[in-house]
# Entry
Amino acid sequence: MVDYLMPAELFPVIVVGIALLLWAAIRRRACIRWLTWSIILMVITLVGGMLIARWSGLAADEIEPIGFWWSVVMGAIILYIFTVICIGFAGCHLIKILFTQSPE
# Structure
């Protein structure tokens, strides 16, 4: 059994990490666009998936977790997880920039 909602449940921890990454990116003036677009997409997919689950009745067990709406919500969760992974890659890239280039 795998809890595929774990990244969504760890959203507060992810937000702290993103804030630190964004702070470092702004100080170094690197990867700002990449991080900004990833953060925007991450929030849209998480909030959008939750709203769709609420409006469709999936969140309240009004409908069975099968069919079109379930696929849309799972797609939003998968896209959310993908954007969290992209933010992790942006952090790795930022670390590489910070430790390989001398400050200007």
